[in-house]
Amino acid sequence: MIDLRSFDPLNTTIYMAGTLSKSIGDLTELLYIRLPAWKKITGKIPNAIARLQHLDTLDLSQNDFIGKMPSWITRLSKLRILRMGGNRLRGIIPPAITTLTNLDTLELEENRITGTIPQAMGNLSRLVMLRLNNNLLYGSLPESIGSIQTLFLLDASHNALVGKIPSSYGNLPELAFLSLNNNKLACTIPSSLGRLSRLAALHLEDNQLKGYIPASLGNISGLGDLDLSRNFLEGPIPTSFTLLTQLGTLKVSGNRLTNPLPSLRLLPSFLDLSYNEFKLGNYIPTWIMNASFGFEISLAGCGIDTGLEDWKPRAAQFFTSVDLSANNISGSAVEFFATMTFLSHANLSNNQLKYDFSIGVNFSRLLQTLDLHSNQLYGSIPSSIGTLTDLKTLDLSKNGLTGKIPTEMLNLTNLSQLNVSYNHLCGEIPQGKPLNGFPVSSYSHNKCLCGLPLGPC
Question: How many CA atoms lie within 13 A of 192 on its CB side?
Answer without folding.
Answer: 13
